[in-house]
Amino acid sequence: MFTDEQQRTQRKLIDLGVEIVVSHALDGFDGREVRLACVFSGRCIVRSVQSLVLVTARLPDDALHVELAQRPESLQANGITSVTRIGDCLAPATLASAVYSGHRYARELDEPDGGDVPFRRERVTV
Questions:
Q1: Would you tell me how many other CB atoms lie within 10 Å of the CB of residue 101?
Q2: Under a CB-based contact definition with an 8 Å cutoff, are residues 18 and 47 in contact?
Q3: 68 vs 10, 60, 83, 107, 113, CA distance in Å?
Q4: Within a 10 A sphere around the Cβ of 84, how many other Cβ atoms?
Q5: What was the pLDDT predicted at 50?
Q6: pLDDT surpasses 80 at 100
Q7: Residue 36 in contact with residue 26, Cβ under 8 Å?
């Protein structure tokens, strides 16, 4: 999906001084240094890091939803009548999809179920 976010995102990261390393796979991490192996040559580079954020398999992270679903009485006691999975909790995707998912949910909140047809953004004028 071409959302034009790649160029803006990378420009901002570069402006912030972030080193972007491509075509490398994580080969090791000891809590202080990360070892990256080139996917073509196998040659490794080592970088000192303060933290490591992994972008891995695109699997939903629904642990919070599962935990909440196991405590319906606690939800009801706090006036919560439903919990809905959206965004990466439902199905990881692009940043644009996550924003759209949140926007759609907010627009449809407390509305009757519209089925599979999302909210209408278009406004017909005559």
A1: 18
A2: no
A3: 36, 16, 8, 23, 22
A4: 10
A5: 92
A6: yes
A7: yes
Beta strands in 1-126 (DSSP E): 24-29, 33-38, 44-48
Q: What are 19's two structure tokens?
A: 């080193």
Q: What string of DSSP letters covers 51-105?
A: ------------HHHHHHHT-HHHHHHTT-------GGGT----HHHHHHHHHHH
* C-alpha–C-alpha distance, residues 6 and 38, integer Å: 22
End-to-end CA distance of the chain: 33
Q: Measure the CA–CA gap between 14 and 20, rounded to whole angstroms.
A: 8
Is pTM, for the whole model, over 0.90? Answer: no
pLDDT band at 121 (very low <50, low <70, confident <90, very high): low
44-93 per-position pLDDT tens digit: 999 999 998 887 667 888 999 999 999 999 999 999 988 989 988 888 88
By residue count, the chain amounts to: 126
Residue 63 DSSP label: H
Percentage, residues of the chain above pLDDT 90: 46
